């Protein structure tokens, strides 16, 4: 039997954060399974999955908590590995004029069609020929049974005339 821990990490960005976390996990018998990490507005933020033997779980959790003296805040949640449903996964890129609420509009539309968000990366960038901002999203979505990528594109592009969707080979 193995314990699975989901760690949420936040710290002021600096060199060595991932090294400190990974050494702590390794030193306490944990195995770093998967993660997503980024630097945002001077902060380091991440989420990761760790597996550890139940006998070492408490010591690992305590050691991770002690990283707060180095300015690394970690929230630990116990989890179980999910049994991934067999369904089509699409990688898509979205480009649109930026506006307040665009992520909410997209996520509400996806939820109303039973499309599950696996991952989402977004950013905004000014356009070279105007003073406007463009919204960009790169996402992996799990489609419900029977939905095609073309149907997903039509659903998303129905939000507005300026929204463009491209399906990317995953």
TrEMBL record:
* Entries under InterPro entries matching the protein: ACT-like_dom_sf (IPR045865), GcvR (IPR016867), UPF0237/GcvR_regulator (IPR050990)
User: Where does it mainly reside?
Assistant: cytoplasm
Q: Which UniProt keywords apply?
A: Cytoplasm, Repressor, Transcription
Per its UniProt record, what Pfam families does this chain match?
A: ACT_6 (PF13740)
Indicate yes or no for the key word Protease: no
Protein location: Cytoplasm
A single cellular component GO annotation: cytoplasm
Q: Which GO terms describe its biological process?
A: regulation of DNA-templated transcription
Q: Which domain of life is it from?
A: Bacteria
Q: Protein name, please?
A: Glycine cleavage system transcriptional repressor
């Amino acid at each position: 039997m193995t314990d699975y821990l989901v760690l949420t990490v936040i710290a002021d960005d600096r060199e060595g954060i991932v090294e400190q976390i990974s050494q702590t996990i390794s030193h306490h018998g944990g195995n770093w399974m998967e993660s997503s990490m980024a630097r945002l507005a001077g902060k380091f933020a991440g989420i990761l999955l760790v597996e550890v033997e139940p006998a070492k779980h408490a010591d690992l959790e305590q050691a991770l908590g002690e990283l707060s003296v180095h300015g690394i805040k970690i929230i630990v949640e116990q989890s179980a590995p999910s049994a991934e449903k067999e369904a089509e996964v699409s990688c898509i890129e979205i480009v649109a004029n930026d506006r307040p609420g665009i992520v909410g509009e997209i996520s509400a539309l996806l939820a109303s069609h039973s499309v599950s968000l696996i991952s989402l990366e977004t950013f905004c960038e000014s356009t070279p020929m105007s003073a406007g901002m463009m919204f960009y999203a790169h996402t992996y979505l799990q489609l419900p049974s029977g939905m095609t990528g073309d149907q997903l594109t039509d659903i998303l592009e129905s939000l507005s005339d300026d929204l463009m969707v491209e399906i990317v080979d995953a």
